Amino acid sequence: MTIIAKVWIEEDCITCDACSDICPEVFDVTDDSSFILAAVRTDGGFDRNESKSTLKSEFGSEFGDMIVEAAEACPVEIIKFEEVSEAGDETVEEATEEVAVVEEVAATVAAVPAADAGVLAELFTGDRNLLILFGSQTGNAEGLATKTAKLASNYGLNATVTDMDGFDIESLSSHKRVLIITSTWGEGEMPDNAEDMWQAALKSNASLSSTHFSVCAIGDSSYDEFCKAGTDWDERITAMGGIKVYETVLCDVDFDTPWAAWVSEALPRIACVDDSGVFQSELVEAMIAYGLGGDDDDQESGDFSPAIIEQAEISITMRIFRYDPTSSEYGWDEVATALPGHATIQDALISFQSKVDGSLAFTRSSLSGNNPLTGVKANGRIMLADLARISDLCQDGGTLTVEPLPGHEVLKDLIVANDNWEAARVASKPWMVSGPRTGEYLENGSAIGVMDSAVATELHAIADVSSLHLIQGMSDCMGLDESYNGPGLALQRWVRSCDPRSGDGHRRAMMDSLHNKGGIWQEADFAAISRQGDDGEKAVDSLLDCRARLLAEYNFSGRSGRLVKNYARSVKSSGNVNETTLYRSVLGPFGLASNIMNGVSLRMMLGFTRTGGPMMRGFQGMLVPPAGIGKIPNMFNGRIHDHHEVVAIFNELDSRF
Questions:
Q1: How far apart are CA 417 and CA 469, in angstroms?
Q2: Rounded to 10 degrees, what is the CA torsion of 273, 276, 281, 285?
Q3: Can you give the pLDDT at residue 105?
Q4: Which are the contacts of 398, defined by CB distance < 8 A and separation ≥ 6?
Q5: Which positions of the chain have pLDDT values less than 70?
Q6: End-to-end Cα spacing for the chain
Q7: Which burial class, exposed, middle or buried, applies to 113 when counting CB atoms under 10 A from its CB (0-12, 13-18, 19+)?
Q8: Which residues pair with 215 in a beta bridge?
Q9: What is the C-alpha separation between 359 and 208, in angstroms, rounded?
Q10: Contact, 496 vs 430, CB < 8 A?
């Protein structure tokens, strides 16, 4: 297994979606480039990761092989990565622990009761801008600056993160609130991006008498000039008249913990600088309380997050499926527990694991949530364990039954194998293979392409589900038909075949994979999927459109096509589907006798079959009850435009329909 320490993206990305198709847990393609997601990085940034920030250890190990695959699939070969050595692995784990400290601080911010902002009302009027300057050599200071800006909104500040490179030192006097986060390079030198500004500051005569500031310095205590760049800025701004609201904090290589302590003190203090540039020291305690709780339901914490919705505690009985691969034994664990109604299934499983049985195995999400591989079956419904709330599944005194995701081999307890899913996805190559198109071009001649916003929206809506892997588990056919690739993969292929950027050959390959063995025709009944909530309904709508397109493009060939064609001809004369008339044709001899006068039996004998198989098989279904009962789907006596396959036939054969 490959473990990745760092992954980054060089310039000239053609936004082809190949990386995000293979590993959406790490890559996200924007209009301009492919980015490394903030949730997987120790610096919390969302960009191409030019600073080469390390990955959190759980992502580097879990998705290492997929990152390598994404790099190999990149058509312009700009995805680069570094594997973890034994020493590097330890470094990644340490970095993860540091980030956990920061996230713990953020969790504390959300947990403390709201404070009364009445005494702060006047303070919140007027200018609330905060300038955060960073000097960074490897990206650490920049990452901390971004995190600081997100937390600043808790204190009613409008933060702007600015690179020292190119910043005009003379304009600093116009800022009432300034935070500086800088690293030290070499033997006490400024980072490259801060050197010009530092030299300008040494020559400047600007007065900073209305500028309040604090400095967070990053360094390495193994060097003699520990954090010298930060202390130099402290001394210089003080010499220029700046007012220090909080002492400079010196951070060693393990910088997250001291930074978290600094930001929890510096932010509320600098937030107490009013519109006129006066530090209201008597309001600091009130500001700290406000930042920890806030009395506004719409208050944000960093990135936008809705107000926490808390529900009363409910008592439930949990039934959890258990499987021991060593002994091949399985069964159920039952336990009575009390949990908040807003707790997720994952919360309940974690509680069970920590308090009842630590050997319980299940897939959990990262701290960012929404892991597409946390799917389970809970009270008969397929859902993501890290998103589904207990209160939506059972009431006080009820039972919550949790089983593994259907259609997959169970490895242990609630963990299922994803080998077949990954193998089928790799074999079908559902990542972008573009064709020649007009649009903008890169310097190397590669086309970026253009797409109308309406087309982009429609393309996104085709597979707008929480997890394609979850759609796989909604199918009744997965696990029973070994050759079937599954509806989740079919949905991904269908999106690619609809993408106007796809080349003709790639689109044809996707359509062939959907139409032939392993494709969507092996899904016997979409009803099982559509019953699984909004995600299931969205997936089925798209897959029905896919089937209609397949029927038209492949001239209704094969058993499925013949079934639709003959069925369409049987109702074409009226333009209506009459359930009563057609359903009687599967009731054996009595149905046959009752249909003699209405022509249905004649059409059956002349070629219409319910299965697309030989005509005699359909005729036998009429004579040998109850062999054919239930094979015709339930339909209403209505216009046929509600039935996508019939519409496809009619559009092909007769424009009047």
A1: 11
A2: -50
A3: 37
A4: 314, 316, 317
A5: 1, 84-118, 293-310, 366-370, 432, 434-450, 556-657
A6: 56
A7: exposed
A8: 180
A9: 60
A10: yes
**The pLDDT value given to residue 111:** 36
Distance set, CA 444 to CA 29, 422, 439 (Å) = 20, 33, 14
Q: Is the peptide bond before 626 cis (omega within 30 degrees of 0)?
A: yes
The rounded Cα 505 to chain-centroid distance in angstroms is 30
Q: State residue 638's pLDDT score.
A: 40
- Which of 524, 581, 587, 519 is closest to 553 using CA atoms? 519
Using CA atoms, how far apart are residues 267 and 213, in angstroms rounded to an integer?
10
**CA–CA distance, 212 with 231 (Å, rounded to integer):** 16
Contacts of residue 87, defined as CB under 8 A and 6 or more positions apart, other chains included, come to none
What is the C-alpha separation between 286 and 326, in angstroms, rounded? 58
Closest CA to 453 of 31, 2, 6: 31
pLDDT of residue 628: 40
Q: CB 631: neighbour CB atoms within 10 A?
A: 13
Task: Give the H/E segment covering residue 496.
Answer: helix 487-498
The stretches of 572-609 forming alpha helices (DSSP H) are 579-583, 589-594, 600-605
CA dihedral 242, 126, 308, 457 (to 10 degrees): -100
Cα gap 361→313, rounded to integer Å: 25
- Among 213, 214, 51, 81, which residue's Cα sits nearest to residue 142? 51
Please give the domain boundaries of the chain with CATH numbers for all domains: 4-92 (3.30.70.20), 127-292 (3.40.50.360), 313-416 (3.10.20.30), 419-553 (1.10.1060.10), 558-653 (no CATH)
Pairing of strands 415-416, 410-412: antiparallel
Alpha-carbon distance of 126 to 134, in angstroms, equals 26
Q: Token pair for residue 318?
A: 């949990």
pLDDT attached to residue 430: 74
CA angle 178, 195, 82 (to 5 degrees): 95
The rounded distance, in Å, linking the Cα atoms of 271 and 275 is 10
The answer for residues whose C-beta is within 8 angstroms of residue 43's C-beta and 6 or more apart is: 51, 53, 139, 140, 142, 143, 144, 146
The tens digit of pLDDT for each residue in 53-80 reads 888 877 778 888 888 888 888 877 889 8
Helix (H, G, I), strand (E, B), or coil: what is residue 443?
A: coil
